[in-house]
Amino acid sequence: MLTIVYASVILALAAFPAILFIRNLPQFKRAAAPNESVNESFGGISVLIPARNEEASIKDSLNCLLVSTFHPLEILVLDDASTDRTAEIVSCTADEDSRVKLLQSNGLPEGWNGKQYACWQLAQAAKHDWLLFLDADVRLSVDALPRIAAELTTTPRDLLSGFPCQETGTFCEKLLIPLMHVVLLGFLPLDKMRASRKPEFGAGCGQLFIARRKAYFAADGHRAIQNSRHDGLKLPRAFRSNNLATDIFDATDIAVCRMYTSTQQVVHGLLKNATEGIAQPKLIGIFTILLLGGQTLPVFSLGHAIFWGWSAVAVIILFLATILSYIPRALAAVRYRQSLAGVILNPIAVALFIALQWWAMIRVMLGRKPIAWRGRN
DSSP 3-state assignment of 248? Predict the structure, then answer.
């Protein structure tokens, strides 16, 4: 009897994210088709790129923007004390195209995170009504800006965030990066998010944000989250705290990004802002139960049950739980062009992800220094 109860709990934990993921999938839409009349009435876009040691990616990012059919357009790149050729590359591009302008950071004030201060400086220098904050390693398609403009006219929103296609190369990238969509669509009810402006429903991807200028400064923009490393969560919540509308969309077909290029970068990237997300005392316990119980335990429990001869009913329940546990990762792999190996090893990926969340929280409790990122804490 106890084995059946245990199996039923595991089934419930696996069913919750699977059902929510399936419900969310059609609601997590791609940007609208471009519309010439919309482009003419929309107004200009200021693309704002904070760049620190981005010589490997900044040229490709700029080249993709410069072939865009959208206008009026300005592209501001702020060189945040880079020690490589970032400034030189941007300066040469600016000499060739007047839409590009290179800015230099005026230093990092006490209490500010580097990226947030760079974005705040960029916003103050921008001239257009729409501010598109773009990470330097994001490459947009030629129709990305017209489609984002068209999307913003369908439903009024003050802040819109797109989730680009996540390129992965190393094994660790393939294992862990796709969990972004599993956690997002498996645990955030998009219908409730859109029906409410409560801060706790705020979500986004720091790689791509577009904000209405007036709303951005009304919410105090990146200054409101000046000491944060997690703009993906914190910026939408700052807007919602000011009763402003935020939303997300699937940017897989208009934007591509490779966040990390090594196992070390993946681990450091997940650790650096974990304590502003799941790795908090009030959240980590429940997410450990939800993620491990619904994504990792089903397959291992099924193997254990078969080996030790549990009842047929318990085995059947765990078999169903195992199938459900793979649904979010499998659907995400198809929809968002993710690795098949990551799907197969999803139970291990989730266990590793949770371990990193616990390690991040323990580091803080032990008083360890924050993980340095691009040469800064």
Answer: strand
Edge-first strand order for the sheet with 138-140 is 100-104, 73-79, 45-51, 130-134, 208-212, 159-166, 246-257, 138-140
Cβ contact 69:142 at 8 Å: yes
Give pTM, 2 decimals.
0.95
Nearest Cα to Cα of residue 166 among 337, 311, 344: 337
- Tens of pLDDT, residue by residue over 314-338, are 999 999 999 999 999 999 999 998 9
The candidate with the shortest Cα–Cα distance to 126, out of 64, 49, 59, is: 49
Q: What would the pLDDT profile of 121-178 be if each residue is shown by its tens digit?
A: 999 999 999 999 999 999 999 999 999 999 998 888 999 999 999 999 999 999 999 9
State how far the Cα of 74 lies from the Cα of 132, in Å rounded to an integer.
Answer: 10
- The answer to whether the CB of 325 falls within 8 A of the CB of 311 is no
Report the CATH architecture of 26-170+180-259: Alpha-Beta Complex (3.90)
- Residue ranges covered by each domain of the chain: 2-24+277-365, 26-170+180-259
Distances (CA, A) of 29 to 25, 61, 182, 363: 8, 24, 16, 38
The gap from C-alpha 200 to its chain's centroid, in whole angstroms, comes to: 16
Residues 159, 111: Cα–Cα separation, whole Å: 25
Residues 6+ apart with CB under 8 A from 71: 39, 44
